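Record 1 of the preview.
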Amino acid sequence: MNWIILIFAGLFEVGFTTCLVKAKSSYDWECALWVTGFIVCLLLSMLLLFKANLSIPMGTAYVVWTGIGAVGTVLVGIILFNEPFEFLRMVFLGLIIVSVVGLKMVSD
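->
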């Protein structure tokens, strides 16, 4: 169950980085909504990371959380913000995924 909580924590990390980018390019009340979304996603991400960290080793939980956030944020950037989709970029993203899966496999 705590691995599922950790996955959601990573997804909320993607949410807060996405909200941050959207807030940067918006104005007035729309910016306030994105900043609110950023704060909510940040709090949920940290709370869920804390909860998962109660039974998953800290180093493993943190790397998995950051890996989900990094891969998810790059994919959101490609899909929503027209960031470049380059071969080497995808290779290194694949290495992050392999590393995260490997850590999960060797963790208790």
